[in-house]
Amino acid sequence: MQPSDTRTPAARRSDDADTYDAIVIGGGPAGATAATDLARRGRRVAMVDQAGRIKPCGGAIPTALIEEFAIPDDLLVARVTAARMVSPRRRQVGMPISEGFVGMVDREHFDEWLRQRAATTGAQRITAAFERAERIEPASAGPAHPPTLRVHVREADGRRRVLQTRSLIGADGARSRVAQQCIRGADKARFVFAYHEIVASPQALPAPATAAPALSATAPGGFDGKRCDVYYSGEISPDFYGWIFPHGATTSVGSGSARQGFSVRRAVDALRGEAGLAGAATLRREGAPIPMRPLDRWDNGRDVVLAGDAAGVVAPASGEGIYYAMAGGQFAAEAVEQFLATGNARCLAQARRQFMKRHGRVFWVLDIMQRFWYSSDKRRERFVSICADPDVQQLTWQAYLRKRLVRSRPMAHVRIFFKDLGHLLGVVRT
């Protein structure tokens, strides 16, 4: 249902069908969330998205996302209750989740559900590709005559279409065309290239490996549909990690790297062989860039703001992006609403400011962790050893599931500090 139009008939122009308060480019988690929030506020919103693309993604979502964004249970294709970390020497650490679970979603269906929710809320879906935006200055200056953006899109059949709007949200992925055209400094973004293969999950599942979280030196093997496996090894990724994430009937097997010349496809082949998934039927192969850090600027100071991968909000070290994309979409919608209500373009900068206030410290910590611990196999070996610590495990899961740094157990932080110091100085043996 479209929001009601309170303007007088004289104010309605003949091109009203293609005139909006806000246009969102991209219908992934960030764009769909922004479109939903603005439509709920009664704004006339268009969500422009290309058909048929599925984002390569492990598909993990934390408790905070499920609760904050009202995700129904039937979208969860699996509930993960443990992780297994595998070191370069193939030593293993089981990390059981003592409270709760990590939800797993299939991006093909999850993203479409988000888009459908946006449409049901009142956003108009337009299946097309963004080409460019141009600003039309009014003949008379002043608040009563704000500039208008003309947004040029190309529909699937090749026809061009011109939309008009007061504001534009770029949520069109890591190599965002909106960002490249409209935001200063967007061309300096750096990326990890991620690649995964969706394979059929094995039918016979062994007993969960959550009962023995201590460090084990046995060769990894066995598939568990309730466990995520994470491989820290230079041959699987020299600067990131490899993963095996169960999605119920299917499983995502992938790797990522920013290093030129490193073959993530060969790494995934090796990972499938090591995990006993070489013979599993391959259903899809997908690859995409993942931003390595948030952009320094998300808005153009006039009428454009970014969200999701376009803004660079993927967590370092973990590569987690769905929650942060949706949070970024929410902040972008709030900033645009303030801009539309006041006409003050400075409001658009609130999207980045509020996001970094809420999540910037976590990004800073994870960036330092990735730069240090992922830099060599010797350090990766120590990193996996640290993950065997019960205090590390509990605080890690609490922070991940609830999306806030845990401060309620100060002595646990003190113990972790001295244990980390021992690993850094080589006092603790791995």
Describe it for me?
By secondary structure, the protein is α/β, with parallel strands linked by helices. 31% of the residues lie in helices and 24% in strands. It has ten helices and 16 strands. The strands form three sheets. A seven-stranded mixed β-sheet has the order 6-5-12-13-14-11-15, with helices on one face. A five-stranded mixed beta barrel has the order 1-2-8-9-10. The longest helix has 24 residues. It is globular, with a radius of gyration of 23 Å.
Topology:
Layout: E1 19-25, H1 29-40, E2 45-49, E3 60-61, H2 63-68, E4 78-80, E5 82-86, E6 92-96, E7 102-104, H3 107-121, E8 124-136, E9 148-155, E10 160-170, H4 177-182, E11 191-200, E12 227-231, E13 242-247, E14 250-257, H5 264-274, E15 282-291, E16 304-306, H6 322-342, H7 350-373, H8 377-386, H9 390-402, H10 410-425
Parallel strand pairs: 1-2, 1-10, 2-8, 5-12, 10-16
Antiparallel strand pairs: 3-7, 4-7, 5-6, 8-9, 9-10, 11-14, 11-15, 12-13, 13-14
Helix pairs in contact: 1-3, 1-6, 6-7
